[in-house]
Amino acid sequence: MPQKSIADAVREDRLWQRHVDLAKIGATPKGGVNRQALTPADGKGRALVTSWAEVRGFTTAVDAIGNLFFRRAGSDPDALPVVCGSHIDTQPTGGRFDGTYGVLAGLEALEAAADLNLVTKRPLEFVAWMNEEGSRFQPATMGSSVYSGANTLDAMLAVTDGDGVTVGEALPATIAATPRAAPRELGAPMAAYLEAHIEQGPRLENARKTVGIVTGIQGCRWFTIEVLGDEAHAGTTPLAARKDALRRALNMIAAIQDIMADDTDTVRFTVGRMEVFPNSPNTVPSRVLFTIDFRHPDLAVLTDLGDRIAAICEAKAGGQPVTVRETYKVPPTTFDARIVGHVREATRRLDLSMMDIVSGALHDAKYMNDICPSAMIFVPCEKGISHNEIENATPEDLAAGARVLAEVLIALANE
Amino acid sequence: MPQKSIADAVREDRLWQRHVDLAKIGATPKGGVNRQALTPADGKGRALVTSWAEVRGFTTAVDAIGNLFFRRAGSDPDALPVVCGSHIDTQPTGGRFDGTYGVLAGLEALEAAADLNLVTKRPLEFVAWMNEEGSRFQPATMGSSVYSGANTLDAMLAVTDGDGVTVGEALPATIAATPRAAPRELGAPMAAYLEAHIEQGPRLENARKTVGIVTGIQGCRWFTIEVLGDEAHAGTTPLAARKDALRRALNMIAAIQDIMADDTDTVRFTVGRMEVFPNSPNTVPSRVLFTIDFRHPDLAVLTDLGDRIAAICEAKAGGQPVTVRETYKVPPTTFDARIVGHVREATRRLDLSMMDIVSGALHDAKYMNDICPSAMIFVPCEKGISHNEIENATPEDLAAGARVLAEVLIALANE
Lengths: 415, 415
Prior knowledge:
The structure is a homodimer of 415-residue chains.
Chain A: H1 6-9, H2 12-22, H3 40-55, E1 59-62, E2 68-72, E3 82-86, H4 100-115, E4 124-128, H5 142-148, H6 153-157, H7 167-176, E5 182-183, E6 192-198, H8 203-207, E7 211-217, E8 219-228, E9 232-233, H9 245-260, E10 268-270, E11 274-277, E12 283-284, E13 287-296, H10 299-316, E14 322-330, E15 333-334, H11 337-349, E16 354-359, H12 364-368, E17 374-379, H13 395-413
Parallel strand pairs in A: 1-5, 3-4, 3-6, 6-17, 7-16
Antiparallel strand pairs in A: 1-2, 2-4, 7-15, 7-17, 8-13, 8-14, 9-12, 10-13, 11-13
């Protein structure tokens, strides 16, 4: 009788039950999860995942920024591990799958390997990165950025929450929640990194595909624009005599929307925040602040269109002061072609429908791609809704993605 | 030797000094005035004006809503008074001239008449209307609206401020500040009403004219528009899949700006307030609220353009919910042609430069025009700035307007 494949050993019911059980920690009345990084709920969640791993004999390690690793040993003690993972911290009104899925799919892959008594050359690991969401402490993707060296440990330990508590002060209690975790070196090398995640967008569902072959992460630029005008009486001041900060801001946004127009619907352009001063119905606004979130997978487009924003704002300011500050800038990520090829090949082998996709959101895999060959696997989420308590995904799709993940992990671990 | 005219008897220095002295009550560090209606400062201001009036033998009366009247008797005890006035309450960060000028110009006219020992057939009065600004208690023009019958006394006495204090509770202390004021009947008839005021706009200054012959007050309509969409992730959600409440709101405003375009620069169209929810840079807005303040002197235009706003919002809502509420609607006021003619004739007699003007702001004269023939006289204010601590006007212009006012009052009082 032929050996049962790792994909066959992935158990949909076990993976689903893990999601149900972990979602009880930080559960919200509307069916979502509030398990923000470095809160007591985060510690409880980490302890629960650790208890599941320890039962299977996986070893646990934690690094200085609180990234939590679980390892199933390989046959070659000197071989670098093949790592997968994501995060279990959530938004304040988050869902049951964002991040959590990538961690539990990793656990499921390792459990399936253990169920089969598979021997791999390389160790297999899954990781729960610390503070991917950036809700209590900014920036987001904090743990993976420190692991990869993009941010320094000292700088991140000094970050404060809204109450003035630092990461350095909050971290020990969270680390103490997994007392048997051994210390782990920051930046310890990996053979490869994989991250399974719900898409957080509607494209897979709309295309009726089960697996997204994530070829990269689009780049992102954030701008804050402040437009000044002169406060004036709405009844008495002729329009020609006004310096209306809001009217100018709207002209700027309209002109930027024009250059962002895109038949392929690839550009992501969002004005999400706007503040008007003094914000009184019968006073011409003297000051308007608005933000731009602009994303694109192509660095040339991201650079060209993004670099035109300041000049457009100047041109539409009518000689009044306008300041354009770029507050965030990350280039697009292109995942490793070999690892992406493994994902595509495994999906084909499992006869699952698939499409190539570029991630719209940032993920920890962005930083891992800087230090080792990396890729991601997306599965559909209902109506593309995420960062929301009603976030949903099906047990079948979650299991399908976990099977692809397990197949790729085993293939890479035996290379 | 010819009799000195009433205009010659108006004293620029005395009028200016009254402004300086009254501005000390509620003075702000930036040179403005905070003397909101029914506050202790309002009472002190009313007591100071009363002390000036009593020295000249003018009698004082107060009605049930706190409008404060000062009278110089005429020769015919049965004749209706010719009344002028404005208000001495201010915005929280108001100036020294808005309202105050109309009261002090009235005092100056009566003092000039007294200095000349003029005998008029009709009594001459000036009035300080209660709560024109509507800062602490809404609505604005409260006192004149009750006097004219547009609002009921009971409804206005029940109005509360931000702390839950009613007008009825705050009024007695203010009335007690002028203990010798006799009771006065609400709505007691007048022969005519005149109001001198700073323009609060830049047209007189720009045209280098000293006197604005105010032919009316433009009409005003206020709208509050609420646009709904769906919250979505700015990175993952394609633009075609979004229901972006802010983008829709901006399309609505652009389309309304188009129909409001006006080569004559007569339309006053202002979006002064905008609220965006959840107002986060990387979340597509799910709800936007904005206001429209639309004013025009022509009722047909006010009706036609204003009535098209709701349909435009519907058309630009892309099938998502939008609600358009009209929160305020006042038709244009046309002042009495005979009284306006008196103002024009007096200005010509005094050889002052003038232009016809329609008031952009509401004034107490709007309500007086409903019960007696009324008109207004504008003088320039610096750069058109008003409702601002830096509001300014020149002693010469203030005196010129007071001379016109005094001439008209005497002419009407002897008709």
